[in-house]
Amino acid sequence: MFYQLYELNHAAMAPFRAAADIMRFAYANPLNPFSHTPFGRTMAASLEMFERTTRRYGKPEFGLKQTTIGDQTVSVREEVVWSRPFCNLLHFARNVPAVSRNDPRILIVAPMSGHYATLLRGTVEALLPSADIYITDWIDARMVPMTEGTFDFDDYVDYVIEMLHFLGHDTHVIAVCQPSVPVLAAAAVMEEARDPLSPASMTLMGGPIDTRINPTAVNKLAQERSLQWFSDNVIMNVPWPQPGFMRPVYPGFLQLSGFMSMNLDRHLVAHKEFFMHLVKNDGEPERHRDFYDEYLAVMDLTAEFYLQTVEEVFIKHSLPKGELLHRGKRVDPTAIRNVALLTVEGENDDISGVGQTKAAQTICVNIPEDMRMHYLQPDVGHYGVFNGSRFRREIAPRIIDFVRQHSRSAVKPPLPRVIKGGRAG
């Protein structure tokens, strides 16, 4: 009943949250003389802190309306081009000049690990001037009715394959963090079937390919607990009246509590500084709002996908051991021969330790040496692998160069061959 109690508490706080918001506007109104005093600013800051800490943060927007190509600013239109019960494929359609219409086509597979795909807004923004970008927009499991069936690791791999078939010849795929394993598995399945629409290149960033290497706190937790413990303690049914009523999920609010507890002192300091900036009225709070509006927006995961990922990736290490199965058939990374491989890690990554992503270079033994590359970015943590100034300045250009180097655009595309996978549910 924990999920139901959480929802009840949220509903009970709604009138107090609304009242605090109204009072905050009153104290912050420049027409109110108190708004220009330390007392008024302190009251407004306290009320905003209360409202923000009791709010449920909705799904953010990408908000990428334009990009710069060369010295020209072009408009960007966000559109859904492919849809399934648990995922939409978003295309950032650029109103590009003729010279840019041959830019590489990149599918970014966003992590299904609690946050929405908008966490990769900076990734998309950095790559958009140089590539035609698509991204997986995973759907909150509590919004998917039970009639749509289940969604597990096999379905995830099938979705990736279907999207690559939809996008067609000479598509490059980037997996950020968690999807590194299913994306590598999808490439292996396609290559073993000699699928002509396998990706031209595969970039794995900060992913848990082999979590036995430099295990982090996240990895150690999975090793210390049994799968039954996870099932008993973090899996709950979606409460009424949500569309996914009775669907077993790993709730977003539990995931968020885990995220926050890993760096609790840093979050407490950030909120204290936010409060002081509000009182001083120095214009600094906007960065805090932007970050936490994104960070605190979380989604539920289906129980079957979460538990299967914990078991196969973090407990059994099935992929590096050669024991991972897809639809009952062993996934063979050695079958990958025609997909160029780039692995990217952060020197200070506390989620996927150094070497965990690079392990893909070891298990994909049949990729030619001139089609593989590994890059370790100094002085960045997990988030810095795919966002921030160093990503824009040092990592993104390397990705674009690698993608262009291994484009198949000069090769006549073969006739498509479809791999039939299981339907979600």
TrEMBL record:
Pfam families: PHB_depo_C. Residues 206-406 form the PHB de-polymerase C-terminal domain. Transmembrane segments: none annotated. NCBIfam families: PHB_depoly_PhaZ. This is Polyhydroxyalkanoate depolymerase. It comes from Rhizobium aouanii.
